[in-house]
Amino acid sequence: MKLIPRKRLDIGVADLLAGLALCGEARDGASAAAAAEAVFGGASREACMACFSVRSAFDLALQAMELKPGDEVLMSAFNIPHMAELVRLRGALPVPVDLDPETMAPRWAQLQAAITPRTRAIVVAHLFGARFDVSRGVALASERGLFFVEDAAQAFAHDDWRGHPDADISLFSFGALKTATALGSGVAIVREPELLARMRRLNADYPQRTNLSFARKLLKYLVLRVLAVPRVYGAAAAMSTTLRMDFDATINAVTRSFRGSDLRASLRWRPAPAQLGLMRRRLERPGGSRVLARTLAGARVGRALPASLTLLGGEGDKHAHWLFPVLCEQPEQLISHLRRAGFDATRGGTILSPIRNGERVASQVEDIFKRIVYLPVDGHLSQGELTDLMAQLDAFAFSVEADTLGTQALLAWSPARNGSAAG
């Protein structure tokens, strides 16, 4: 069975083989990091810092901010779980701020109202490949003497955008599923010099991953690149069903970046020189056409969505559709329908989830999490596959509507309603 994967790697075999070749080069990590920073940062290279991952950069920032137990960090209420966990590991409290589903920007009035004397930082995330103007948050942080962290891990689009020029920190990811992936690593642009100096000192004390460890990762992703071929992927899904394995959980586990019970220990590394070299190679080579293909595919499906499905963040600025999430009242039924038709949709529970702090929850985000489905929309889809996907979405919407109308008609007709009695 042909099954279109939920998310295909933005890297080809040639780059994976080039990464393996880099593993054979003897180069020190400092020079490799400086070279990657120079390519990414351009004129702002002095503010750039290459890190093991965005999580690692955020952990460094929290240490450099010297957060204390009881301090509060206001955060976009939808993010990868580790971001809130890192705040908690400092003894501080993550405070969820609800989001506008149309742009996935924070509810700025709610954010402002949530600031207390214990607030130390504001963390705002651009989600799904869309961007929004964070100027209001930057200005608010400046007025209140708070750090402003812009999480742009999902927003890189092979252009010259490097975050808001007045954000204290802007974070970019080149993790396994990201645009221009280097199978890990990230870049922090730290515009506050003293904060950058503290982060560099902390990072310098971390051990460095070896090229050998990175070579093993490259070999793993060469295998996953083959697995992403739709007929191979479909065969793997069928085998999982036969073996009574949870295919969704298996795929999430295989692509998970960090495992183990000690999160900080898994993050406090410097990337291997070969990985930094691969990141530099990916940044130096043009990738705009791949992003454009993905953007056009997302825009086409977004315009054709049936009324019963809503594209999350569809009104965001310069939407590059890194992910394609929709809201659906019957998420599990939609997933089953699409998988039978050859499209691997998912709830994506390990990708993003609500940030909670006891009774402090974000109601809009909680509702999003209950209804979200990620569709396999990307630039790899042929025009025929896109047409088929849209037809399947229409068919699902029609079947749901028909079932609803049938149920309503059945409820409307009953012996009592029609003036008759049983027997």
CATH topology of the domain at 13-204: Aspartate Aminotransferase, domain 2
- What is the CATH H-level superfamily of the domain at 13-204? Type I PLP-dependent aspartate aminotransferase-like (Major domain)
CATH class of the domain at 13-204: Alpha Beta
Separation of the first and last Cα atoms? 52 Å
- The SSE order reads HHEHEEHEHEHEEEHHHHHHHEEHEHEH
State the low-pLDDT regions, or none: none
What is the average of the pLDDT values?
A: 92
Instruction: Kindly estimate the percentage of residues that lie in beta strands according to DSSP.
Output: 5-15%
Provide the gyration radius in Å: 23 Å
User: Got a strand count?
Assistant: 12
SS element count, helices: 16
Using the alpha-carbon principal axes, give the shape: globular
Q: Structural class, from helix and strand content?
A: alpha/beta
* Major sheet summary line: 7 strands, mixed
Instruction: Please list the strands of the largest sheet in the order they lie side by side.
Output: 1-8-7-6-5-2-4
Can you tell me about this structure?
The chain has helices spanning 13-22, 29-41, 54-65, 81-89, 108-114, 135-144, 193-204, 211-227, 230-242, 247-254, 263-267, 273-284, 288-304, 331-340, 363-371, 383-412; strands at residues 48-51, 72-76, 78-79, 93-97, 119-125, 147-151, 169-173, 186-190, 310-311, 325-327, 353-354, 372-374. The chain is an alpha/beta fold and 423 residues long. The chain has a domain at 13-204: 3-Layer(aba) Sandwich (Aspartate Aminotransferase, domain 2). The strands form 3 sheets. Strands 1-8-7-6-5-2-4 form a 7-stranded mixed sheet, with helices on both faces. Strands 9-10-12 form a 3-stranded antiparallel sheet. A two-stranded antiparallel ribbon has the order 3-11. Strand 5, helix 6 and strand 6 form a beta-alpha-beta unit. The mean pLDDT is 92.
